Predict the structure.
Amino acid sequence: MVMSKYMGTYNYEPSYPAAIVFAVFFGITTLAHGIQLFWTKTWFFVAFFIGGLFEVIGYISRAISANEAPNYSITPGTIQTVFILIAPSLFAASIYMELGRIIIMTGGEQYAIVRPSWITKIFLIGDVVSFVAQAGGAASLEDSFESGERMIKIGLGVQVSFFGLFMITAAIFHYRLRPNTSRLILPKVLPWEKHMLVLYGTSLLIFVRSIFRLAEYTGGESSPLLQHEYYVYIFDAVLMLFVMGVFNAFYPAQINEALRARQVELANLSTASEG
């Protein structure tokens, strides 16, 4: 079953049960993230929570679209394309902010190749560009598959490039800090490496997903990746569900607590030096 060309999203009859299952799974992990967010007041993870909501809305819309076969309507098809495509950009935004906070909480600013404040700004700018391009491209697929596809590829290309640079930046900081933790206080008592490993793992999953999406759209409407639905679930839905689940298990609330402790430490040092 071929969906009308206005969407350019799938050239098969999408599975209603699969969409429902992932809507439920994403709903469970997103609900857990919402509870964790408000319970711990880890506000820099708001974007991540919103990304989870986007996944839920996307797969509910995909289920609605699948249930309409063979007479698909525009609205649910457009919503599922846009929301599922751009949700990982919101995950990425929180991951970028987490690295900046890890650098500050460890007191390891001198081991980062870029100042923590600039790390957040630089990568968030790239994330915003990627988000806007992908959202605009997905929304314009209805009018022109080629122009929409081009915008999506630009957005995904920006996302892949910035994520690659981000992982290199994180790895260099980790490599430089590790042999110098004895000079610092917080890294010795906080599991900062655990959070770094979580960043690597989740970043790699998003990186692989973005490469898949880039390859999918680079191949055009005739791409084998656009001909079979299971690719979407294997290389997007499952990977993003893992990303959300990993952060449920290793929620970064501890980073906020350590950051506040670091700020108190710096304030005390400043007061002592003035005295």
In short: Confidence is low (pLDDT under 50) at residues 1-8. The chain has one domain: 16-261.
